Amino acid sequence: MSDREDAAAPEPAEETPGAEDAPGAEDAPPDDEGPGQEQEGDQDGEQESDMLLEIPTVEQIDPADDSSAQPELQAPVVDKEQVAEAQEQPASDEQPTDEPAVTESPVDEDEEPTTFDNEDDEPKPDEPEVTDEQPEAAPAETGAAEPEPEPAEEEEEEDDGVPRIPDDFFYNNDEYTSQAIVSKDSGLPRDVLALYHSFGYDCTKRSNLYLLDMNTLIFAAGNITQMMNIKTKEQKYLRSAGGGGVGAVAVHPHRTYFAVAEKGELPNIMVYEYPSLKLYRILKEGTEEAYSFVDFNATGSLLVSLGSSPDYMMTIWDWGQEQIVLRAKAFSQDIFRVTFSPDNEGQLTTSGVSHIRFWKMADTFTGLKLQGQIGRFGKTELSDIESYMELPDGKVLSSCEWGNMLLWEGGLIKVQIGRKGKKPCHTGSIQQYVMDEGELLTLGIDGYVRVWDFETIDTADTIDDTGLYEMEPMNELRVGQGDVFLKSMVKSLDPDDSGIWYAQDANGGIWRVDLSFSHTTKDPERLFSYHAGEICDLTPSPKSNIVATIGVDKSVRVFDCINKQQICESHFSMAGSVIAWAPEKVDQKFSTLIAGFQDGVVRLLTLAKREQDLVKKTPTEYEMTLKEVFKPHSDRVAALAFDSKAKMLASVGDDMTLFFFNIEDTFQPLGFIDIPVAVANIEWVPHNKDTEKLICFCTNGDVYEYIPPQSAQIDSSKTFKIESLTTRSFTFKSIKGKLIRAEEKARKEKEKEAKRKQKEKEKRLRKARGLEEEEEEPEDEDDEDGGDEDVVETLREPSPLLNGFCYGEPNKFWLSMGGFDAGYLYECKFADNEVEAMKPRYGEPDRAVQLSDCQDVAVNSLQFSTSGKQLLMGLQNGGVRVQFLTDDPEAGTTDITQSDHYWRLAMHDGQYGRITRIRMSADGHFVFSVGADGNFFVYQLMSQDAIDKAVAESKILSPRSLDSTVTVEDIEDPKAYSIEEAKQKSEYDRLMKLAEEKKQTVKRDIARMRRQFKKLLVKNEDLPEHLQLDRREFEIDPQMKRDILLQTDERIELVKKEMAWESEKHSISLHKLQDRFKAQLENDRIVLKAFQTTHEVASFRLQNLGTDFFKLKNEARTRKISTRMSTLHRTPTLDQINTETPVEVKVEQRAESPPKTAASGGQVADKAAKALGKVEQARQKRMARKKQWDELCAKKPSDHYEDPEDVAAIREAMDNMGDFRLKTAKDYVVPEHLRMNASKKLYQLLHLQELIYNYKKKFNTRLTAERDKKIRIIDQIKDIVEDIRVIHSKLTPSCCQPLPDVPELHISETPEKKFEFNRETLLKFKKELVVQQGVKGA
Questions:
Q1: H/E element holding 988?
Q2: For 142, which DSSP code?
Q3: In angstroms, rounded to a whole number, what is the distance separating the alpha carbons of residues 333 and 355?
Q4: Are 80 and 17 in contact (CB under 8 A)?
Q5: What is the rounded distance in angstroms from the CA atom of residue 302 to the CA atom of residue 298?
Q6: Can you tell me whether residue 365 is helix, strand or coil?
Q7: How far apart are CA 1189 and CA 1196, in angstroms?
């Protein structure tokens, strides 16, 4: 190990002891999953089954271990490949623990938790929930060259002494970019095909549109990452490192870096600096096959990645140091996205198929942990979660399949938000949430962008049992006219256009959307248009560099490859399937296209320039007009083909009909015939001087040859169906198994020849040293019986035919097969006569050409180059292959069977980007490929002269080798024997060989004597009985036999003692397995089937409750009883009477006013007398009222007085009914014994679990009794049938009736028997295992 490598190797983290002993959280169900219990907002007593993954913070290295010793740093620049290799070395003898596979599946409250048998999907109940995760960097990539970093001036080192990767370190892009693969010693240049332009965009991929700066968009397209300038439309490309495709892209928050997560075997995450596009960091071993999503945190210091099937691994990276911080298996089904919370550091969220999960990064005393809590839907229907947004207060807002918003809090759905009138927020799932300037934006698959009041959503709560909160958006914008499916959008970085967004359209486009919602708001503008989904076919113009495509998005598009632009497009009502450019004899202007669609319709389209006044209104200069339309098929049009004279068109459909058309001014239907199977493609070939014949290559491997009908011979007055046509047929028979066996045999012969030559060399060496020659051991002959392989080939499903073409001699054609037969091109031939067609080997190809480096990769599309010296191939895995053909001087053409040189480049997506069509331009300068991933690439083909020149320059003569008749081998092995050691070894080998020969001689003598003894026994048995010798008389000495038996017993005992430890070990393992899987199972699932009907009933698969359950229940019962005893005394509700002090009666003193002076004294006296009378009357009334009040108060009982009847009634209620208090009272307090807590709820759950167990056990007991009764009935029937058979033996056959069938028990009715076995069953299992291994080997 180099000094730099040692310096770069961080110290491996020591495994934390005891983590593996943590109990599994799945042994007991969570409290909130009790039967019949609904989820409540109160989470008291709820036990969350969190997943804890820990990375220790303490790192230790054994100082005695030289391999992990850390020398002084030599240079601050750290070699990344060496870092990866150094991290793989363990610090001690302990092996690193496996990656955890602990997940939770979405479990509804009314359903039982799902258990998984595969440890990669879900943990077993006894497995720990807490595991240690030791981060390891990825191993160095095989064959990759080491970058040569420049030394820095100062060393960068952390405080703890661990070396860090310098910030100014960069990789060499060329060394980590996938290149074209060329055949060995071919001398072919790497740039035979150079990417000229990309017309594709994987618009259906989630979150596949980002901004790097104000004018540059970035997205994934097949096997490249594409950057496009919005204004100039200039494109830049970055190829993936592994060549398997690009899984996801993420842009750093500062937009100085972007990450490209790839696909393939152990894919990498490549981090590039922007705008230099230098390779900055490589993150390795985060998943097995492909990444599906990546995201930076808000500060950009961490990166989280999400792997796809099969591991679904979520990994958190310190990407700047290429270190794994934490990782865990996120779920057991497809996961759509993972993101950091923008406001709460350390919180993440994942969502996918029928689940959402909330994660927390917790720094504990044992290290950093990752806790995952599954979101529980409760009463809400399970739904796929496409998008979500973390709110500042920790709540999460997510989408659902029916278009509403779900507000999550504490792992539960707090409220469901919809529009008024029970209308959903969007028609279909919400694809993205965006918080912009305090407003919430939602992006829907229905093409709408809606703006919502964030405060209303954040504080929303349910007001009834429906759990639905209704509100209306503040603003909304519809993009397109109902044909736009929005997937994601990103805000413009231009400060002058703060309301501008760029949106990803899953229907094939990138839109510029103005969300300012002002009076100057502009309508949405589609900036770029692409195919959405699979592009089914393409056809180049026979005259110019214009190419037309057709796809499942119901569109036909025409592109100008020279000017790198789409010139027109047209949309239809049905997805397309095939397209062809009409030949010159049909349209001399080469402006007519003929397209077939999946509903069986064929359309003729004419390409023409628009009128000058219309050009200003539309973005394109050309348009397509419908010239003619007809429907020859009732299903997808599979292929279209013109004959060489352009007088006839053949159309074949998936309805298994072949239709012929005469070409005149219009296409006139001639007639159709039925074809036995679906057709992959068709091709016209010459038949004689005046006519041609049509070859139909069918998907099942059949090939049919038809001679087209003549219009004069067909009567189409009543029907277009043609009853019979002259035909020949061929059915493909697989020979790949034979080819593989022949290659294996040749390989073994080559190995034998190499061994023979090696022995000759050793013999010469020994002879030169004066050593004795060893006797040669006989070689074991391999069993070449291919009977099993023939059986396997017979049982194998037929491979599909993908493509066929005619090449070479007449009556011969070539086939490209899929499935097992992929990796070869097969030359086949029609039978010349019926006798040849009846031969057993008819159907097997005459020759097979193996495609090097493509053993199991199917070829989907083929085309010969215009020069005829190359064969272009579109592969199933998204690769483009150019096979270079050799010239055949005798035939004057090229020979496909001698093509050893090839050039291959991965361009389309390696998982779902199979190339559907590959074609070459008319002038031979360009090559086009379209794929199922929706991408369309244009390549520039190197001229043949340039290729020949490059090949010639690469063929440099090697130095002349020395001519020597005798070769002397040098001794390079330091452990080689010396002359004396070789002599002693030879003598030892000779003695061992003599001993072995003596042993074999004794064995042969014993075998010979045994055969003689058996012959004597047979002769003795043939003699008459009175002349036969007794068996004991053959024994020479009985004591000898007893001694031999005694010795045998002693040897057996010795073997038992020697194997005692191993036997005990396996016995303990068996008991552990039985205790783990069988002992806990009280009743297995029994399916009882009826005798004469299909009815069946199954038992419950029931596990024992176990001692832990009853112990827990007893503890809960004890706590409940103690609580009840403490509250047995009654505490009546006391009436709180607010005793008020008597209010003093205030006497109002009237202020006497001085008497008024009046003119007449008599009048004043009268008035005064009247006033005094009124006052006296009032005083009398007051006195009377006071007297009445005093009498009433005198009758008032005391404050402690109780009515005897009320007291008796209360006592009666307390003794018989209980103390029921008014809950409406303000002073009402819930009594202690009526309060609900975690202990009481736990006891209720345990009690319900025990009731369920008892009901299931009772049902199982009854079902088992019925099963046993069925067994007894079957035994009785067997006895009766046997009695009838005895009676039949005594009767004549004419008097006998057929015996009744005896019912048999199904294997599912006696599941306990699957644990029973004997020697016969073991031998049968061994035989089946051998057959399975043979099938896998084939």
A1: helix 979-1022
A2: T
A3: 9
A4: no
A5: 9
A6: coil
A7: 11
* Whole-angstrom distance, CA of residue 1105 vs CA of residue 1254: 10
Structure tokens at 104: 């939770």
What is Dmax (Cα atoms) for the chain?
A: 185
**Which residues touch 573 (CB under 8 Å, ≥6 apart)?**
554
Would you say 461 and 415 are in contact if contact means Cβ atoms under 8 Å apart? yes
The residues with which 513 forms a beta bridge, in sequence order, are 501
How far apart are the C-alpha atoms of 656 and 671, rounded to whole Å? 14
Contact by Cβ (8 Å): 709, 670: yes
| C-alpha torsion 950→951→954→957, nearest 10 | -140
Cβ contact 1245:48 at 8 Å: no
User: What burial letters (b/e) apply to 670-705, b meaning 16+ CB within 10 Å?
Assistant: bbbbebeebbbbbbbbeeeeeebbbbbbbbebbbbb
Higher pLDDT, 1297 or 1036: 1297
Distance, C-alpha 480 to centroid of its chain: 33
Cα separation, 718 vs 724, in Å, equals: 16
Helix (H), strand (E), coil (C) string for 1208-1226: HHHHHHHHHCCCCCCCCCC
Asked, as a colleague might, if the bond just before 310 is cis with ω within 30 of 0, I would say yes
Residue 313 and residue 329: Cα distance in Å, rounded? Answer: 4
**For the segment 146-195, what is each residue's pLDDT rounded down to a tens digit?**
343 333 333 344 445 567 889 999 999 989 999 999 988 888 898 999 99
Question: Residues 375, 383: contact at Cβ < 8 Å?
Answer: no
Q: What Rg value do the Cα atoms of the chain yield, rounded? A: 45
Residue 91 has pLDDT above 80, yes or no: no
Q: Is 907 exposed, middle or buried (0-12, 13-18, 19+ CB in 10 A)?
A: buried
Mapping DSSP to helix (H, G, I), strand (E, B) and coil, where does residue 576 land? strand
Sign of the C-alpha dihedral, residues 807, 813, 817, 823?
negative
How does DSSP assign 179-195, residue by residue?
Answer: --EE-TT----TTSEEE
> Distance (Å, rounded) from C-alpha 928 to C-alpha 921?
8
Top-ranked range on mean pLDDT: pick from 648-657, 788-797, 886-895: 648-657
| Cα separation, 673 vs 658, whole angstroms | 5
In the predicted structure, residue 127 carries a pLDDT above the cut 90: no
Cα 538 to chain centroid, rounded: 31
Q: Tell me the C-alpha distance between 280 and 272, whole Å.
A: 5
- Looking at residue 228, its amino acid is M
Q: Which residues neighbour 1057 within 8 Å (Cβ) at sequence distance 6 or greater?
A: none
The answer for residues whose C-beta is within 8 angstroms of residue 468's C-beta and 6 or more apart is: 404, 415, 416, 417, 418, 422, 462
Structure tokens at 790: 């023939």
Could you tell me if 165 and 322 are in contact, meaning their C-beta atoms sit under 8 angstroms apart? yes
Q: What's the mean per-residue pLDDT of the chain?
A: 80
Whole-angstrom distance, CA of residue 566 vs CA of residue 607: 13
**pLDDT recorded at residue 115:** 34
Measured distance CA(77)–CA(170) in Å, rounded: 10
Q: How far apart are CA 76 and CA 153, in angstroms?
A: 8
- Is the N-terminal amide bond of 275 cis, ω within 30° of 0? yes
Condensed to tens digits (0 to 9), the pLDDT of residues 109-119 reads 343 333 333 33
Q: Is 342 left (phi over 0), alpha (psi -120 to 50) or beta?
A: alpha
CA-to-CA distance for 462 and 441, rounded, in angstroms?
22
Which residue shows structure tokens 């068709």? 682
- Cα separation, 104 vs 355, in Å, equals 10
Distance CA(304)–CA(317), nearest Å, equals: 6
Q: How far apart are CA 248 and CA 218, in angstroms?
A: 11
3-state helix, strand, coil in the chain (%, to 5): 25, 30, 45
847/107: higher pLDDT: 847
pTM of the model: 0.63
Q: Among residues 746, 735, 742, which one has the least CA distance to residue 846?
A: 735
> How far does Cα 200 stand from its chain's mean position?
24
Please state the φ and ψ torsions of residue 117, each to the nearest 5 degrees.
-80, -30
- Give Cα separations from 677 to 610, 654, 698, 734, 841 (angstroms): 44, 8, 6, 19, 22
